[in-house]
Amino acid sequence: MTNVDVRQEKKDVTTKVLIGLISVLSIAVIILSYMVYDLSRRNKTIIVKKEEVTVEKEKLREQLNDLLDEYNSLQSNNDSLNSEIQKDKERIRLLIEELDKAKNFSYQMQKKYEQEMASLRKIMRHYVYQIDSLNQLNQQLISENVQIKREHNRIKNEFDEVVTKNDELELVIEGASVVKTSHITIKFLNRRGKETERSSRVEKIQTSFTLVANDLAKAGPRRVYLRIISPDGYVLSSGQTFTYREREISYSAARDIIYEKQNLDVVIFYDVTGELIKGKYTVEIYMDGHKIGESFFTIEK
Fold first, then answer.
1. Cα dist. 257→16, 54, 114, 228, 290 in Å?
2. Could you give the residue ranges of the DSSP H alpha helices within the chain?
3. pTM score
4. Per residue in 153-209, pLDDT tens?
5. What 3-state class would DSSP assign to 262?
C-alpha cells in the first residue's frame, strides 16, 4: 500500500469519526434543547399554578370577609341568639387567620374552606329566619300591647267618667242633704238682756236663725258653730276650734241641738269680752262640716 493510500485511508477514518461526533453532538444538542424546553415549560406551569393558588386564596379570603360582614349585619334582641351568632363570627375570624398563615395552600385546603363557608351560610340563613320570626313576633306583641293599652285607656276613661259622675252625684246628694239656714237675725244685748245700739254696752251678741227642714238630711244630735269675724279679719273667740275641711278653725260660740228633719229655730249667744271696734262684722254658721249660713252686722258707735 502506497503512502498515498495510507493517507487517504486515515483521512477517511478521520472523516467518519468527525461525522460520528457531529451526529452525537447533534443528538446531544437536540436532547439538551428538549430538556431546556421541558424545564422551561414546567417552570411556567409551576408559576401559573402558584398564581392560580394565590388567586384562589385571595378569593377565599374575600368570601370569608364578605361572610363576616353578612354576620355583622345580623341584629337581634334575643341574647341567646346573639351569643350563637358571636360564636360563628369568631369561627370565621379564625378561618381567616388560618388562611393567612397557610404556606402550602392546596386544592384539599380550598375544598375544606369552601365546605366551611357553605356550612356557615346555611347556619346564617337559619339565623335570618329566626330573626325574621322574632321580629314578626315582636311586631305582633307590640301591636297587641298597643291594642291592650288602648283598651286599658278606654276602660280607664270610662271608669274615670263613672267615678266622676258618681262623685258629682255624691256631691249633689251631699249638697242636697246639707241643712240650710234662714231668717238669720242679730241682736246686741246689754248686761240686763235688753237690746242696745251702743257698742260700749254690748255684753252679748244674739244670733237667731232657722234650720230648714230637709228630708235628705240625717236626723239626730248636732253641734252648730257660730263664727263672728271682726272688721280686721280676726275671729271673736276664746281659743276654741273645730275641724273644717281638714283644718282647725276658731269659732266664737256653739250650740248642741237635735235635728228631726223639720224646721228648727236656734239661738246662739256670744259673750263679748272686749270692746267692739267700729265696722262691718261677718257672721258664719257651720254644721256637719259645712257652712250653712252667713250674715253681717255693723258697729257704728
1. 169, 113, 104, 20, 16
2. 3-72, 79-101, 107-177
3. 0.47
4. 887 787 677 556 655 555 455 568 899 999 999 999 998 889 988 888 899 999 999
5. coil
Which three three-digit cell numbers place residue 254?
256653739
Helices 3-72 & 79-101, crossing angle to 10 degrees?
160
User: Which amino acid does the sequence have at 155?
Assistant: I
Q: For residue 115, list its beta bridge partners.
A: none
Distances in Å between the alpha carbon of 109 and those of 56, 58, 67, 112? Answer: 11, 13, 18, 5
**Grid cell in block for residue 5:** 493510500
DSSP codes of every residue in 11-33: HHHHHHHHHHHHHHHHHHHHHHH
Give the end-to-end CA distance of the chain in Å, rounded to a whole number: 198
Q: Which of 9-13, 26-30, 129-133, 169-173 has the highest mean pLDDT?
A: 129-133
Candidates 181, 289, 269, 174; CA nearest to 228 is 269
pLDDT at 101: 81
Q: What does the pLDDT look like over 199-258, one tens digit per residue? A: 888 999 999 999 999 999 999 999 999 999 999 999 999 999 999 999 999 999 999 999
Residues forming beta bridges with residue 105, ordered by sequence position: none
Name the amino acid, one letter, at 192.
R
List Cα–Cα distances, 249 to 180, 228, 229, 246, in angstroms: 21, 12, 12, 10
Distances from the Cα of 113 to the Cα of 66, 97, 229, angstroms: 14, 12, 100
